[in-house]
Amino acid sequence: MNAQDLNKKKAAEFAAQYIEEGMTVGLGTGSTVAFFLDALAEKKINFTGVTTSNRTAARGAELGMKIVDVDEVDHIDVTVDGADEVDTYLNGIKGGGAALLMEKIVAKNSTKNIWIVDQSKVKPVLGTFPLPVEVVPYGSGQLARKFEKDGLNPTLRLDQEGKTLVTDGGHYILDLHLDGMDSPERLSDYLSKEVGVVDHGLFLNTADIVIVGGDEIEVKERKH
Ligand SMILES: O=C[C@H](O)[C@H](O)[C@H](O)COP(=O)(O)O
């Protein structure tokens, strides 16, 4: 296992201690969450899982977890998810694995959100990682041209076979190559107002706790 994966695994295993018997748990998506699912399965406790992608739902079922639909629960105690970038305010970019929409819905409905990342993802400013924007297929070419005109350098995300990637929700993803951003709030507002944008990968004021895996584990908490 390379050093980055080892750090992802450390953060994921540390996060398992936040999950207690009987909780309803939001299960994120990605390679870091994959380690978390394994660690959670090893705890052998009863909990109800709400998933954020078909991938996580399939893996959860494989591990024998009780998985229910987000609309079947009246609350989610805690969600554990990965992130592609996290800044000093604990804002982040998510959606590198194309799961941002369901992740945001589950996050918004969670009492507590914990992110697990390796240390390479902690950045002073967001935007080195391309910002995913989930868009309705109809008119997505027009939207891409508008983003281009506005200097946001969009590229249409392709799958491993080189075909247009389709998300679990049936949408496309435009990745914005920004090289940093002055104001994540302003960009978030701009994107949210564009017709055809379903949602975007800026997760602002969402994470309560970020667990950073490195030589040591660092636990960062949002000051409310
Ligand atoms: O869409 C995917 C999610 O937002 C992931 O949590 C994020 O991309 C981090 O993934 P990984 O843990 O594989 O680096």
Features:
four-stranded antiparallel sheet, isomerase, Alpha-Beta Plaits, 224 residues, binds ribose-5-phosphate, Ribose5P_isomerase_typA_subgr, 2 domains, alpha/beta, EC 5.3.1.6, globular
SSE arrangement:
Layout: H1 3-15, E1 24-27, H2 31-43, E2 48-51, H3 54-62, E3 66-68, E4 76-81, E5 85-86, E6 92-93, H4 100-108, E7 110-118, E8 131-135, H5 140-149, E9 154-156, E10 172-176, H6 184-193, E11 197-200, E12 202-203, E13 209-213, E14 217-221
Parallel strand pairs: 1-2, 1-4, 2-3, 4-7, 7-13
Antiparallel strand pairs: 5-6, 6-12, 8-10, 8-11, 9-10, 13-14
Helix pairs in contact: 1-2
Ribose-5-phosphate (R5P) binds next to α2 and α4.
How would you sum up this structure, described in words?
The chain has 224 residues and is an alpha/beta fold. The chain folds into two domains: 3-123 and 204-215, 3-Layer(aba) Sandwich (Rossmann fold); 131-200, Alpha-Beta Plaits (2-Layer Sandwich), CATH 3.30.70.260. The chain is 29% helix and 26% strand. The chain has helices at 3-15, 31-43, 54-62, 100-108, 140-149, 184-193; strands at 24-27, 48-51, 66-68, 76-81, 85-86, 92-93, 110-118, 131-135, 154-156, 172-176, 197-200, 202-203, 209-213, 217-221. It has a seven-stranded mixed β-sheet with strand order 3-2-1-4-7-13-14. It has a four-stranded antiparallel β-sheet with strand order 9-10-8-11, covered by helices on one side. Helix 1 (3-15) packs across helix 2 (31-43). The longest helix has 13 residues, at 3-15. The radius of gyration is 17 Å and the shape is globular. Ribose-5-phosphate binds at residues 28-32, 81-84, 94-100, 103.
